[in-house]
Amino acid sequence: MSPDDNVLIPVTVLTGFLGSGKTTLLNRLVRQSAMKDALVVINEFGDIGLDHRLVAESDEHTVVEMSSGCLCCTIRGDLSRTVQQACEAIEGEGGKPFSRVIIETTGLADPAPILHTLMTDHWLAHRFSLDGVICLVDSASGISTLNAHRESQRQVAVADRLLLTKTDLVDEERLSRLANHLAAINPAAEQLQVRHGELAAEHVVGSGLPAQGQRAERWLQAASYAQVSSPGVGMAPTTPGGLASMMAPASGPALTRHGEQIRSFCFTVEQPIAPELLEDWLDLLMSLLGDKILRVKAIVKIAGREQPLALHGVQHIFHPPEPLPVEACRDGVSRFVFITNGVAPEAVTQLFDYFQPAPAT
Ligand SMILES: Nc1nc2c(ncn2[C@@H]2O[C@H](COP(=O)(O)OP(=O)(O)OP(=O)(O)O)[C@@H](O)[C@H]2O)c(=O)[nH]1
């Protein structure tokens, strides 16, 4: 497979805490036609991986295992190598190129470094694009796991879709408590219930940035978030002390009860944004607060440009902006969705205004 083919292969990241049902789901998925010619990468923690043995093998898809450590922290290079070797092997055998890739993370993985690897590894980034992050949550133990484990909160926070598994083990009341808890962390992610891994593959693959304007709005789900808008030119502090105060940790009640203070909000800007302002703002925001910004998605109207842009970032790393059809931003309003760990919306909005040109006197 060469990068000149110019068609990026979609990658779905399947995450979820230990025992949440990832392997059970994967086993059902690989039997479906949407998974024909897929590559399944299973990351095992420890030397003796078992999960890959539990996923059905067939001629229709390929399963490879990475077991040298936790994919999120120690072996980023291995992801590139593993996928590369699998591609070379299938080509060597005269097989069809992979139609898609599914990566099952370990239950303890923070998905952000995996997404970074997909975006920044030269070989991967030229051949693959992130389709979506799917996070499984055990309906029976989900709330206590979220309260106890920061990795679980991060998995939920960055997901495009949440699958509530083992719903046969809980009653309606408990299920709705979990659903509310998850919505407080990630209000836009669609929630689906799954029993024993029974789910159509279409609910797992194809959740990424769509090409059509209508669906781009659905991808952003801006209305699901608390809304903040630019306070306006001249409102931002201009002294260094003022700038420092913006960067102070968020105060006041967090949107969730978790130690991580995961917050999400949508920042709207009514006027088209000058490209250099956008660049300066995001550069400074990411260098000051990048490790606290778990995910950013945006549809942006750039001044002097007809087509809006889709922006998509994980912590301080952004995908190259993708032009969208004009209909994706009919009202000309730019919308930025932020999912953060303890960053107050004002830090984002005031920093934006800091870069606005001063009003003429
Ligand atoms: N009752 C019930 N059990 C389930 C369901 N889905 C999965 N399980 C069971 O939950 C256990 C854990 O499922 P796995 O699919 O191995 O979970 P996993 O996320 O791959 O686990 P790790 O590899 O440890 O991260 C297994 O015993 C499954 O049979 C379900 O919907 N209902």
Automatic annotation (TrEMBL):
Gene Ontology cellular component list: cytoplasm
Keywords: Chaperone, Hydrolase, Nucleotide-binding
Cross-referenced SMART domains: CobW_C (SM00833)
Sequence ranges assigned to domain CobW C-terminal in this UniProt record: 262-356
Keyword Glycoprotein in record: no
Gene Ontology MF terms: hydrolase activity; nucleotide binding
Domain of life the protein comes from: Bacteria
Record's catalysed reaction(s): GTP + H2O = GDP + phosphate + H(+)
KW Hydrolase (keyword) present: yes
PANTHER family: COBW DOMAIN-CONTAINING PROTEIN, COBW-RELATED
Function: Zinc chaperone that directly transfers zinc cofactor to target proteins, thereby activating them. Zinc is transferred from the CXCC motif in the GTPase domain to the zinc binding site in target proteins in a process requiring GTP hydrolysis.
UniProt record similarity statement: Belongs to the SIMIBI class G3E GTPase family. ZNG1 subfamily.
Name the UniProt record assigns to this protein: GTP-binding protein
